[in-house]
TrEMBL record:
Homodimer. Its EC number is 1.4.1.23. This is Valine dehydrogenase. It holds the Pfam family ELFV_dehydrog_N. It comes from Streptomyces monticola.
Amino acid sequence: MTEVTGAPADVLHTLFRSEQGGHEQVVLCQDRASGLKAVIAIHSTALGPALGGTRFYPYASEEEAVADALNLARGMSYKNALAGLDHGGGKAVIIGDPEKIKSEELLLAYGRFVASLGGRYVTACDVGTYVADMDVVARECRWTTGRSPENGGAGDSSVLTAFGVFQGMRASAQHLWGDPTLRGRKVGVAGVGKVGHHLVEHLLEDGAEVVITDVREESVRRILERHPGGRVTAVADTESLIRVEGLDIYAPCALGGALNDDTVPVLTAKVVCGAANNQLQHPGVEKDLADRGILYAPDYVVNAGGVIQVADELHGFDFDRCKQKASKIYDTTLAIFARAKSDGIPPAAAADRIAEQRMAEARLSH
């Protein structure tokens, strides 16, 4: 097992770009025997040990992987701050196609790298990693959450992630329409996998009409077969979904960058509130949404249910306690909308200000 110290020039350029947000530590990991190549990014430990998931993805380049780790770690600092957790932000990415290279040997090697940080970074599941994977990582690293109940963990965190997004939608409805219900509203969900399919259930239970899409046909088919009454319909792709007539809420629940220069101008929805991380492709998109009169519920606020769950696992998991904490996402989202209105700024900027204030106060108290 070796820790890479001589990174390519383009990777180093990505690491030290000022706009990435001043990360405390970035570890480049390589284990030749297992084929592991990974990046662990710690953005901030002002509020406590960095907490964030492990993404397993076939990045086109090392530079792209580093950039994603940096962005995701920064987002976790803000997410954890606004979720009221005593954790900073961190994230890890494993480079490669999990369908092809994931192995027990690779996950154990990754666990050793996380353990070498001595608790500064606590890992969990993300895109491409699952509860069973965290059980393997935990064999080498005690700073692992998202484990199975059989192995002392809380299990799948997507249940509370979806619940939190639903609370964000309720808050959006209250702010925009004066009633915290989705009854009679048309909601488009892009991505009905780990989180999205749970979100669909909440929406249907609340009386919404749901339109779905997913790159995996079997995910769409599973939901349509489960709900054959016509309250769930499907469209071919996200490009079609964002143009659906009469759409009230658009919920991006797949990968990031869903809100960009191409999608924002054609969005028919009045609200964007979804589970995906890093939905704003670049700075300025939040203003474009506001200029079009589209209410944006910041992604890292509403999708915090999962991190609330894995953080609780460190102290002995209690689902009811976690659900109660996740229900407060409703109040936090409303507070952000109120701050945005009073400061005359988009909700994303208001959320950042509140999170930055909490982190700054924590630094001063040290």
